[in-house]
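Please check this one:

***
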Amino acid sequence: MTKPLRHRRREPAPGVLRLQLPLPFPGLDRVNCYLLEDDDGCTLVDCGLYQLDEDTAHGWDDIEAAFAAAGHSPGDVTRLFVTHAHIDHYGMAGEFVDRTGAELVMHSTTPEDLDAYRDPSAMTARLKELYADHGVSPELVEELTQWEDWRAFVSRVVEPDPIVDDGDVLDIGGRSWRCVYTPGHSRSHVCLWSESDQVLVSGDHLLPAVTPHIDFKRGDDDPLGAFLASLERIESLAPALVLPGHGHPFTDGAERARVVMRHHDRRLGAILQVIRREPRTADEITEDIFGSELLNFARRLALGEALAHLVYLLRRGEVEHIEEDGTNRFQKARRRRVSDEDVDE
């Protein structure tokens, strides 16, 4: 049973307060938000999710309690900065903006990510086609695509205004926070970097104990490649203190970035071993890598992760895509060049 949150004042860096908000998901029961203090109006980084069921504890009351324990109120916030558009970071944004009048700041690519909330049926249709093309049975396709409508956790779809891009700077509480664009976990993901004291607010890009999910959806370019390139950027910054979206703050961000890169390198190697003798579908590769006992949403995540790794290998000429009986399969490359048409599959 999940322990109830104990709201208290947590200050991992001077003028930076860590607020914890509960989440209703097994294995992911809380999210970190960060209040950046400023006499001219505070900035809140991420805001948790909204839940339609008023009988649950996941809502505005939690925000007020977390703020009160930190010695503030939501009304102190003039800017809401959201690292990416996933529900546990963005879901309460509409409600927060409506109640406080704060401006919502996100990366310029965010409107594309918000399409998943505007029209979840279109996302579901694309995924059904993708999975069917990659060897997933019709029964399992239906099972894997029933979790694409997340609107119950989003108070309303609110567009960011203003938007930021890589390198933009926000001056908050005597610090200059630079926006560092880190796509991969989400195409719109952005971190905040304070060079003066080597502090990184990392969202979900860099976490202390787990690796963030890297998903592939039809139309994505190369999410794993983007993620690994983003990790290299963070490694070069060498954060002394990382303030993550989940888990406890941690030190030596460069080493953590290297650990995550090694993890994905091992997974890429494992996939190459699976297909070394004969072509396999993405669904078969997923079972070999992650096991056949995964059910429901866990299997959906595993399949998306496997496809992201396969696209990465395709882009770099390590594997080839072939089509047999209307089903896509992958084999170790016998040639080094791969066409864009193959990758788009």
In short: Confidence is low (pLDDT under 50) at residues 337-345. The radius of gyration is 21 Å. The longest helix spans residues 253-274. Residues 132 and 141 are 7 Å apart (CA to CA).
